[in-house]
Automatic annotation (TrEMBL):
Name of protein: Peptidase A1 domain-containing protein
InterPro entries: Aspartic_peptidase_A1, PEPTIDASE_A1, Peptidase_aspartic_dom_sf
Domain Peptidase A1 stretches: 40-378
Catalytic residue positions: D58, D256
Organism, as annotated: Effrenium voratum
GO biological processes: proteolysis
Length: 464
């Protein structure tokens, strides 16, 4: 997302290149889906005692932040607001050298994003770790953002905050990922990896889990630029044996888990779209067109677009080129109806920039090796995870009725119900009036596009 959304998988498996077991590698579950959320998210444990915070995983930004108690304009999110006063290890950062913004003598921040969202707040330091079930994930003392104001997507999104993984520094320290890399007693290498399924996935820090690779698959390595952003050298796009784009057309190519779709420069987008139309019209791909960017499968719901050709992405690897397969289950996503699949790539207009978003990551083991400046990619069977909020089912027993003889008790109960219904009606009327007034006020402050499911174009690079 460029600056504008975890339980532990515990098995003895092979990590990295031959390392066995949980050898200084931390890992956590990811949750999310392109259509339902438009992002993937993890859960962090922050403070002492720890408080759970849900955060979008974003390789396009560096800030790790979330709303705190006392926020003047924050949305209704998955977890309670973080309470700094309830943490024994929380430390505010005062204004001083390297602080770009002061807020009541505390070092603050304001982040604005290209799609119009913004967050502002104050910096603090505290213990933070990836949530996990076996205690192997260790806390580090890191700089964090405490939101005091959220606008647009940050206000309306389900999860609390953002977990920036981009390779650049922030006020007060490096970002959380770099602080984790410094903990060499618990984190082996400056490596992290994603394995994203249709629903959820896994994030590892310190190495990667090769057991997710599909049978017979090994990692293919391509050159990785990691100064300010994660970039790769995209050379060609080949569809059904036809070259639809070459190196000059792509401009800068960024790898970003915070952007939902893969964004292509306008000329490339139209070329790929036309190639798909030509290849799959008249149900040649066992699907009929639904609008400009969707297809309805003839095999019915719960099916996959298996008759659509794969796309090959050609990347720079030293003096060679490496082909990475982009299957239809990744460059398309399942819509609200199970038999309709829509394009998960979009038009980036006249911009000379290509963004490989979540749709590029799907069904792959993707490894960011910042020590060797290389990106590893392999087709994978990524684990699926669904986020289930705990619902309190321990309801209290009903209070006994009034101590009256049966006949009178029934009459009194009827009268009591009538009184209660009348009171409820008055309360509902007052509530309706209040909601109307609130809605009128919010019209001027909030964007009407306020649903996570409407965030398919969540391209949120930091405004320059």
């Amino acid at each position: 997302m460029a600056a504008s959304h975890i339980l532990l998988f515990c098995l003895t498996v092979s990590f990295g290149e031959g390392a066995v077991g949980n050898d200084r590698i931390e890992h956590t579950r990811l949750y999310g889906n392109i259509n339902a959320y438009a992002y993937y998210f993890a859960e962090l444990l922050v403070g002492s005692p720890p408080q759970a915070v849900s955060v979008i995983v974003d390789t396009g930004s560096a800030l790790c932040g979330f709303p705190c108690v006392g926020c003047s304009h924050c949305g209704n999110h998955l977890n309670p607001l973080f309470n700094m006063k309830a943490s024994n290890t929380s430390q505010s950062l005062p204004c001083g050298m390297g602080c770009d913004r002061c807020q009541a003598d505390r070092c603050g921040y304001l982040e604005s994003y290209t799609e119009g969202s913004s967050i502002s707040g104050v910096w603090f330091k505290d213990l933070v770790r990836l949530n996990g079930s076996d205690g192997d994930n260790q806390a580090v003392f890191a700089s964090l953002g405490c939101h005091t104001d959220e606008r647009k997507l940050f206000y309306t999104q389900t999860v609390n905050g953002i977990f920036g993984l981009a390779p650049h520094k922030i006020t007060g320290s490096s970002n959380v990922l770099r602080d984790m890399f410094k903990d060499q007693a618990h984190v082996r290498d400056a490596v992290f990896a994603f394995c994203l399924a249709e629903w959820g996935g896994m994030l590892t820090v310190g190495g990667y889990d090769s057991s997710y690779n599909a049978p017979g698959e090994t990692l293919s390595w391509v050159n990785l630029h990691h100064v300010g952003y994660y970039g790769v050298g995209l050379q060609q796009i080949i569809f059904d044996g036809i070259v639809v784009a070459t190196q000059r057309s792509f401009g800068t190519t960024v790898v970003d888990t915070g952007t939902t779709f893969t964004y292509l420069p306008q000329e490339i987008y139209y070329s790929l779209e036309q190639a798909l139309t030509n290849r799959c019209s008249n149900e040649k791909c066992a699907a009929s067109a639904e609008g400009d960017s969707c297809w309805k499968l003839t095999s019915g719901s719960h099916a996959f677009p298996s008759h659509f050709p794969n796309i090959s992405l050609m990347f720079t690897s030293g003096s060679l080129q490496v082909a990475v397969n982009w299957p239809a289950t990744a460059y398309m996503f399942r819509g609200g109806r199970g038999d309709v699949w829509c394009y998960a790539f979009a038009n980036n207009g006249m911009s000379r920039e290509t963004v490989l978003g979540i749709s590029f990551f799907l069904h792959k083991n993707i490894v960011f090796d910042t020590t060797q400046s290389k990106l590893g990619v392999a087709e994978a069977n990524c684990p699926q995870h669904h986020y289930h909020a705990k619902i309190n089912t321990d309801f209290p027993e009903p209070e006994p009725s009034f101590d009256l003889p049966p006949a009178r008790a029934a009459k009194a109960q009827t009268q009591w119900v009538a009184i209660m219904l009348g009171a409820a009606g008055v309360l509902l009327l007052l509530l309706s009036c209040a909601m109307c007034a609130w809605a009128y006020c919010m019209m001027d402050t909030e964007d009407t596009n306020d649903k996570d499911t409407e965030m398919g174009s969540r391209l949120v690079y930091p405004a320059k």
